[in-house]
Amino acid sequence: MSKKMIPALEWITNYKRADLTGDLSAGFIVAIMLIPQGMAYAMLAGLPPVIGLYASTIPLLIYALLGTSRQLAVGPVAMVSLLVLAGVSTITEPGTDEYISFVLLLMLMIGVIQLLMGLFRLGFLVNFLSHAVISGFTSAAAIIIGLSQLKHILGIKLVADKNVFNIIFESVSRLSEVNPLPVTIGALSILLLIIIKKFVPKIPGPLVVVLLSIMTTSFFQLQGLGVSIVGDVPKGLPSLSLPVLTVDAVIALIPIAIAISLIGFMESIAMAKAIATKEKYKVIPNKELVGLGLANIGGSFFAGYPVTGGFSRSAVNYQSGAKTPLATMITAILIMLTLLFFTEVFYYLPHAVLAAIIMVAVYSLIDIKEAKHLFKIKKADGWTWITTFIATLTIGIEQGIIVGVVFSLVVFIWRSAYPHVAELGFLKEEKVFRNIKRYPNAEVDPEVLIIRVDASLYFANMSFLEEKLSERVATKEQTKWIILDFSGVNAIDAVAIHSLEEIMTDYNKSDIQFLFANVKGPVMDLLRKAGWGDRYHEKIAHLSNQHAMSAINNEKERLACARY
Amino acid sequence: MSKKMIPALEWITNYKRADLTGDLSAGFIVAIMLIPQGMAYAMLAGLPPVIGLYASTIPLLIYALLGTSRQLAVGPVAMVSLLVLAGVSTITEPGTDEYISFVLLLMLMIGVIQLLMGLFRLGFLVNFLSHAVISGFTSAAAIIIGLSQLKHILGIKLVADKNVFNIIFESVSRLSEVNPLPVTIGALSILLLIIIKKFVPKIPGPLVVVLLSIMTTSFFQLQGLGVSIVGDVPKGLPSLSLPVLTVDAVIALIPIAIAISLIGFMESIAMAKAIATKEKYKVIPNKELVGLGLANIGGSFFAGYPVTGGFSRSAVNYQSGAKTPLATMITAILIMLTLLFFTEVFYYLPHAVLAAIIMVAVYSLIDIKEAKHLFKIKKADGWTWITTFIATLTIGIEQGIIVGVVFSLVVFIWRSAYPHVAELGFLKEEKVFRNIKRYPNAEVDPEVLIIRVDASLYFANMSFLEEKLSERVATKEQTKWIILDFSGVNAIDAVAIHSLEEIMTDYNKSDIQFLFANVKGPVMDLLRKAGWGDRYHEKIAHLSNQHAMSAINNEKERLACARY
């Protein structure tokens, strides 16, 4: 086993004693944060709270050995929990044994997908999810997550589950049934969490409200007064359990498994990279996939549910001084000790408090400001955000992200089909060629049209380029030479090369010659492969617009002299 | 009604008598070609042959009035017929009344989709289908189409229908059941069609084999000897019939309707553009969509089936002298006359002959050479071709095109995530900056690193760029300035701008300064919107690498003097 295969060998063999204090305190603080969060997120995923704790043991140990991030805190997170609920609840009822076994199967599938993506180096696939899509999706999902917890705080069992408008409508119309006790507990918890977060961020808010609420509930025996509590939490470590594999279930779960694999990895790698940049080390995306994948595969054999690297806990881990994955190992061990000895403590924990923890945690993910920012910088990105946000909120979690991805692809296709094209003139003083629209004082030779295309050329935008060319030529009747400035052409395809030849032949008939300038190496290679080297050698080899212009000027002189 | 809305007003009001001869003869020749083809393609689509003739009446008249191509021959085509069969046969059995009514509904849906795409100017969406995908798909589909006709020539009813391997396997294993008569008719027809096509292309081959086979069959009464014939073809024009709309059927047909809308339009616009370029007039893609859409909507009320502009008939129409859409109108009128008076003629037409016509027609669509060509020019395009081809052949018609589109998107995402990055040096003689790997004699200042990124920058490739930068800086220890040559950066997004700022701040800590050269107008606008104008004014405004270099040299002098 080399260090390349097991990244942990690297930090274990080089472990410095100085790092131990930071790792210990970070591991301890994250564990304190993770216990209530894990239980809350498991509840959000439609699972018994203890599964959130199980998911915080084996997967953490595996990731600590195989991950390349030193500070990433892996475990249950809100977004993935919601996706689990959205995906599995369409197949079977939450709360049943079948539901739990499907979640385990889903975890195994996610692990296998992530592992394969890592081994085949397909990490780049997350790039299908653009920033605008992720941000719009996260904001909408945060609202859905928050509202889905409303029932625990109102103390009523809502029929509506996923559609936010139905949830709001039903909550308002059944306001008379609301139980004031859980509302009070929930509201006080939210208030306390916000106050602690704002004024004494060093204190772990979730732990405070959990302990306070447990004491209050058990002292006043509030569970008898309509306050729903967590109740018995099974003692002991998770036992080995094999996920049940059936072909039908696997097929039904594939879409959600792919979605969670990508979204989970995206959340994880974003955070891992952010910390690694600050700490000046490298995380390797494809190895992260392997680490996360094996963490999920391992967890699926120990009654867990899908995990990934979370934003907030990783930030806390890092800020609390974590230097190596030992911190994560300490967290896992503390969770195990909790499972072994302290599960009774949570008997009196009200569901309303877990709901309050979730609500406060996800509130910060609603990022309407980002939409405004995107609109300011680039309208299309803003519209992508809005579209994804609205689709997720109205149509559904899984559909929302698909709508977002498709919309951003449509925007991309639209943009590459209608690229920016500029006519250039010469700035004498600066000795550069620039867009004559932006630099009206740029010099233009009436017989030479210089066109810069700001896009890779392919079958789909050639007709647009052709149109633009004929428009410009029509307004510039003396045109005898056209210089195509290829500095923006980063790639070209076979169809575009063929179309270019046709265009050149057509224009030659009207005595207009083509020259190519600033052709890049990779593009030149393709032109040569298509036989342009022999056919047009001198035309495509101009290293700059100046070179092309002087070739034209030489030609002009030659023609002038030929008259005599 | 203006000429803008009804393009026909343009050519009708300006009709020249000189064009009449060409239009008449082209209209006549296309009609002669269309009668056997229409019947054959309808059979391919799992419909009674007469529906192919119905589809060649009303839709042609509508397109002649509303289309912007003057020579495009609209009507039944092989590819769309196959897609109709592939899509509708999964819902209901071909040959039933329900099948016909679903095809009519599908035609209406295709019409509505194309009309809406035209009205909302969404024609650019066909760009999702790259050339490699279309070519690979067409080649595979042609093989499937050809083999699907084998049963008519062998004279046995095959169980296998779509999977080519099953078709071949079943045909071979049941070779003993084959009826030698249809095999002979089919083989002779194919031979005759090839010979006519090759040596006397002026003669319409399909008509010749149709007439010859009708005479032979009726003379020898071959239908009694196991030769399957077309039989009664209903006399008279198609009657008005309303497509039956049910929500379930509409939902089931949506995927295939979208696929046919796009593929049909693609085939049509490619041919229309090719002819328009030669004839120096303009076809307007979004108006073509409106024309085709209304042709399909109209046809769906008159017992037709989905139509589009076909490759081969349009070529024949153009070569036979068609000058205006009047030729298409003449074709439609001739088909109507045939329906009114000559349907008995086709009673004795053997199915094997129609199958032979289809096989010869689609053979030319199998374009393995194109795959080789793509591989030579650009490997990724070649792989896209192969993937689409194999997926279409093995998984299925509809799935094949989806696999192709997804594969080409993955290739694109991969490429934009790992763009080409070059380190530049100065060519003294030519006075240009080029890749030092390609121009080893390019001069390099040990303190200045010039990097050209050949890609638009966005969230997904920034980390790759960052990596490349740190790699280069690591090998060039004296680096004090980094010039980013943005000539290839055609676009940038908000996340990339933000990442760039972070990178700059990071490098500033190690006393490395950034300068930006060749920033294009559209990119500069975005940088300014993000506040870079105020923050980095002098750094981003360098019009060329030379300008950036002289700024650096000035700075170097200033620093040198400051020492004293």
Show the helix and strand layout:
The structure is a homodimer of 564-residue chains.
Chain A: H1 8-13, H2 19-44, H3 49-54, H4 58-66, E1 74-75, H5 78-88, H6 97-119, H7 131-148, H8 150-154, H9 164-173, H10 180-199, H11 205-220, H12 247-279, H13 285-300, E2 308-309, H14 311-319, H15 326-341, H16 351-363, H17 368-377, H18 379-394, H19 397-417, E3 421-427, E4 432-435, E5 448-453, H20 462-475, E6 481-485, H21 494-509, E7 513-517, H22 521-529, H23 532-540, H24 545-562
Describe this entry's structure for a reader.
The structure is a homodimer of 564-residue chains. With 564 residues, chain A is mainly α. Chain A folds into two domains: 17-409, no CATH class; 419-563, 2-Layer Sandwich (Transcription Regulator spoIIAA). Chain A contains 24 helices and seven strands. Chain A has helices spanning 8-13, 19-44, 49-54, 58-66, 78-88, 97-119, 131-148, 150-154, 164-173, 180-199, 205-220, 247-279, 285-300, 311-319, 326-341, 351-363, 368-377, 379-394, 397-417, 462-475, 494-509, 521-529, 532-540, 545-562, and strands spanning 74-75, 308-309, 421-427, 432-435, 448-453, 481-485, 513-517. In chain A, the strands form two sheets. In chain A, strands 4-3-5-6-7 form a five-stranded mixed beta sheet, with helices on both faces. In chain A, strands 1-2 form a two-stranded antiparallel sheet. In chain A, helix 20 (462-475) links the parallel strand 5 (448-453) and strand 6. The longest helix of chain A is centred in the middle third of the chain and has 33 residues, at 247-279. The first copy, chain A, starts with 7 loop residues before the first helix and ends with a helix. The model of chain A has no long low-confidence stretch (mean pLDDT 89). The interface between A and B is large, with 62 and 61 residues. Chains A, B: This is Sulfate transporter.
